[in-house]
Amino acid sequence: MEKIALQMYSLRSMTKGNMIPVLEQVAKMGFDGAEFAGYDGLPAKELRKALDGMGMVAAGSHIAYELLRDSLSAVIDYSLEMGESYIVCPGVHVEKDAGYRDGWKRIAEEFNAIGEKVKAAGMIFGYHNHSHEFETYDGVRPYDLLFQNVCPELVKMQLDTCWVENAGYSAVDTMKLYAKHFQLLHIKELTKPGEPGDLPVGKGCIDFPAIIALGKEMGCSWYTIEYEAEGPQLLADIQESIRYLRSIT
Fold first, then answer.
1. Distance between CA atoms of residues 206 and 11, nearest Å
2. What is the rounded (10 degree) CA torsion for 141, 144, 150, 154?
3. Which of 19, 121, 35 is nearest to 72 (CA)?
4. Who contacts 223 (Cβ-Cβ below 8 Å, separation ≥6)?
5. Three-state SS for 232?
6. What are the domain boundaries of the chain?
7. 10 Å Cβ neighbour count for 115?
8. Which residue, 24, 38, 43, 184, has fewest beta-carbon neighbours within 10 Å?
9. Residue 163: phi, psi to the nearest 5?
10. Positive or negative CA dihedral for 40, 48, 161, 241?
């Protein structure tokens, strides 16, 4: 069975001072793991023990670029204690100026160095996209500048399905284009290109059966559902999303 996680950023308002009870709700929905975007100040030992009791694992975490750059050893130590499989940078912005290309190449060099240390610790380092990495500037897409300049053994792709297709590109084609880097998927629905919307997975315009089929073929480690907006239907939408995802995996 394919492993499905929930990005806990989806429930960020609920988890403030309340992480473990919310994780219990996530476990009851049938998720195999949780992908974190902050740990609510909890010690790794306490949080991991709680997850063990729920029959869930810490799949990985989104860690801000600045923390990866300045506090990588502490990040790795915490992630190891949590038993996480991967550490992902959730996004980077480079100023659109004369140094744009060199800026992304510098980020690629930094990511190679980060990835080397993460790999040495027995985990995977990856990058999670938004739409801006697919917007052409100075004749080039930032996503290409990044993945053409990082080592596929050190920096993996966590492709966000919504944001790549929101930019007008196919998730399937992008997975194939950077197959050597492919490792993880963020499963997020789209109303139509240019109109990202927080719909239950399977209710929008993205061809998830094709994406999941290719993900299986390419050895996707985790399929992680994420919601950007919060609303009264959020928990019901997440439950509907995992049911649909299970039905096509």
1. 23
2. 110
3. 121
4. 2, 3, 4, 5, 185, 187, 212, 215, 245, 249
5. coil
6. 4-230
7. 24
8. 43
9. -75, -35
10. negative
Tell me if 163 sits within 8 A of 129, measured CB to CB: yes
Amino acid making up residue 79: S
Superfamily of the domain at 4-230: Divalent-metal-dependent TIM barrel enzymes (3.20.20.150)
Q: Tokens 């069975």 appear where?
A: 1
Report the 3 state secondary structure along 113-153.
Answer: HHHHHHHHCCCEEEEECCCHHHCCECCECHHHHHHCCCCCC
CA atoms of 92 and 33, how far apart (whole Å):
25
Convert the pLDDT of each residue in 125-153 to its tens digit: 999 999 999 999 989 999 999 999 999 99
Query: Higher pLDDT residue, 232 or 240?
Result: 240
Yes or no: say if 78 and 48 are a contact pair by the CB < 8 Å rule.
no
Cα dihedral 226→231→233→234 (10° resolution): 20
128/81 Cα distance (integer angstroms): 23
What number is the average pLDDT over the span 205-221? Answer: 97
Helix H segments across the chain? 12-15, 19-28, 44-54, 65-70, 72-82, 100-120, 142-147, 161-166, 171-177, 208-218, 234-248
